[in-house]
Design brief:
three-stranded mixed beta sheet, globular
């Protein structure tokens, strides 16, 4: 077991690493790098320019949390090249700064087709017309005057302070993209398998239009998973393999941990002539402003779409020792089980963390400040684990929410369906160059943030190599020798995220941030 010797009073000078009293099981898996634990923190709905467009320069007005970049900080491909004052979306709208008081915004349009239309064959000039969604004057009085031009808003280091500080002390990519265009469920599947094709089960609830969620046999929208009790509308099941299947084949421990996964009322199995009663998930979590939000969203959980990796009825693990391994929970857990496992020496080799909806950063149900509090609390605690010296944390987002970003990535997979509108109606390129011939997966899609926090991360480093969501899967595959998902998955063409690392240099500095403001409160060399 691990002695629970953590001191998380980050404002004070004393910090203690938990003492290891038994060998971490994941240390015994053979890896290609010193990394024995990959943790993917998967957040919601932010484009790169929306969070990092003016990095590393913040406005720093009086009364806001200041951010001053270190000397020699590398520039990113952002808005500082004149795109704020001279923008292709003008005169309809131009980029403008959102301040911390505007941390809550309405949701923008972020579906497969409108995102392509906003890109306008790479002119990047039709965002207000196609992905902009006006915010109501009642809920968002400071934003309503922008109309659909609100989609051009961006934050800087006075609001997303923690993320800018992580970029200062670790590594960031300014060329990371969604594998395809599309919303949250699409991004989640691309993280897990890089393969949104292969729909083999579907059900239309008549409230949502299944035709907007599926084109041919490809998922392009936001349906709920087929193997999920806690559903609210259309359901879709997927065939094929995901990264969990590859990890299982090699007996590598892994888990998906999500806020609100513990059901509010548990599943009751069928007995005699009595039908089974599905689990329900109505638990709420309060935002910083006190607004309660339903914690769990099924379509944010990619492994529930697959017969092999689901925990349909939200069954808890039989014990903490099961976490990461085969058992009743089938590798899918409530977020609370992650810390129970981590603090008892049972940190899985590969971990996916999904915040409750109030902390996932998604516009309309969360905010950058809610997200900041959860991220800093999580990463502060992770750095105090005895496993930290062998850990890599990727912070990634599932989709752009439709927020403006000025960079169009390379089209690595063409498509020609009724839902494609990138280069012409019904076209994303010629459609002839598509992985395994599967249509409806135009990509790469919108540019998204990606950060690496690790004792092996390059410091204050910007990686400009083209990456996509399956670059994370590729790192996992290569590190543990899993092979590729293949069969049309983007992982067969994904670029390598390794340039963000320096595996020759184990850093001993831990960077602790204030969980409210995101400012650095301590940098300590710890054993």
């Amino acid at each position: 077991m691990v002695a629970l010797a953590m001191n998380l009073a980050i404002a004070g000078p004393a910090m203690t690493v938990a003492a290891q009293t038994v060998s971490d099981p994941a240390l015994h898996y053979k890896t290609a790098t010193p990394i024995k634990h990959v943790i993917v923190i998967f957040q919601e709905n932010e484009s790169f320019d929306h969070y990092f467009g003016t990095y590393p320069s913040a406005a720093n007005p009086p009364g806001e949390t200041p951010f001053i970049a270190a000397g020699g900080t590398p520039a990113v491909n952002g808005l500082n090249t004149g795109l704020v004052t001279k923008n292709p979306n003008a005169p309809t709208a131009s980029p403008f700064r959102l301040d911390p008081s505007q941390n809550y915004t309405c949701d923008q349009t972020h579906y497969y087709t409108p995102e392509q239309q906003a890109y306008d064959s790479g002119l990047m000039d039709m965002f207000p017309q196609f992905t902009g969604a006006a915010c109501s004057s009642t809920t968002y009085p400071s934003l309503s005057s922008y109309g659909t031009g609100v989609v051009m808003g961006y934050y800087d280091g006075n609001t997303v302070t923690a993320l800018w500080n992580y970029a200062q002390h670790f590594a960031i990519s300014d060329n990371f993209h969604g594998s395809t265009f599309g919303p949250s469920a699409v991004g989640a599947i691309n993280l897990a398998s890089g393969m949104t094709g292969g729909v083999n089960f579907s059900k239309d609830d008549s409230y949502h239009d299944l035709a907007s969620d599926v084109v041919g046999t490809t998922m392009v929208g936001d349906p709920d998973p087929w193997y999920e009790d806690c559903v609210s509308y259309d359901q879709v099941g997927l065939s094929g393999k995901n990264i969990g299947d590859l990890l299982n084949a090699k007996n590598i421990s892994w888990g998906w941990f999500q806020g609100g996964f513990t059901p509010s009322t548990p599943y009751v199995p069928a007995e005699g002539t009595t039908a089974a009663v599905p689990a329900t998930c109505t638990t709420t979590t309060n935002r910083l402003d006190g607004t309660p939000e339903t914690a769990y969203a099924g379509y944010h959980n990619p492994f529930q779409f697959y017969a092999s990796t689901n925990n349909q009825h939200h069954i808890p693990p039989s014990s903490v020792a099961e976490v990461g391994h085969n058992g009743p929970a089938n590798h899918i857990y409530d977020l609370s089980y992650f810390w129970q496992a981590a603090l008892t020496g049972n940190l899985p080799a590969v971990t996916f963390l999904k915040a409750a909806r109030a902390q996932d950063g998604h516009p309309a149900n969360s905010s950058p400040l809610d997200e900041q509090q959860w991220l800093t609390q999580t990463i502060n605690k992770l750095q105090l684990l005895p496993d930290w010296d062998e850990t890599a944390v990727f912070i990634a987002w599932d989709d752009s929410d439709g927020w403006y970003d000025h960079v169009m990535g390379p089209i690595m997979n063409q498509s020609a369906t009724s839902s494609d509108h990138l280069t012409a109606a019904g076209a994303c390129g010629t459609g002839s160059n598509s992985l395994a011939g599967i249509q409806g997966r135009c990509g790469y899609g919108p540019r998204l943030p990606l950060l690496l926090v690790s004792p092996y991360a390059r410091q204050n480093f910007v990686d400009g190599g083209v990456l996509d969501q399956t670059s994370i899967a590729r790192f996992i595959e290569d590190n543990w020798g899993l092979g590729r998902i293949g069969a049309g998955s983007f992982d067969t063409i994904a670029s390598d995220a390794s340039p963000m690392f320096d595996f020759t240099n184990l850093r001993h500095d831990r960077v602790f941030l204030n969980t409210s403001t995101g400012v650095v409160t301590a940098i300590q060399n710890l054993p």
